[in-house]
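[job 0417] fold request received: AAA1 protein
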Amino acid sequence: CLATLIIMLVGDTYTLINYVSFINYLCYGVTIIGLIVLRWRKPKIFRPIKVNLLIPITYLAFWAFLLIFSLYSEPVVCGVGLIIILTGVPVFFLGVYWRNKPKCVNRLIESMTCWGQKLCFVVYPQCGSAEEE
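[job 0417] inference complete; emitting structure tokens
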């Protein structure tokens, strides 16, 4: 979010759209790869929609061509898009991966979550820790 705000202040909207579209297509491809891997490793799990594997493999071939062409034709835009994605890695490690956080960090995260819920009207805010209940 911070990187997006900086880009909005410095660059123009079309550049931001290019960064985000590269990120979207990268995520689509990773999702299709995950679909193929799950079909191969866990073939017996329930799937509400099951398609022939030829469809995701064909999509993945076109996706790879477009991604490689994008990397070749606009490496700076793709690089900035990758940097935007990588800004989420520290957030993942601080918020999800780090299990035994001090109480002050947990309180900070809870207050930021409550503030974000109130600001965006996402869900009804339940301020206070779940441990108290």
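[job 0417] notes: The first helix runs from residue 2 to 10. The mean pLDDT is 82.
[job 0417] exit 0
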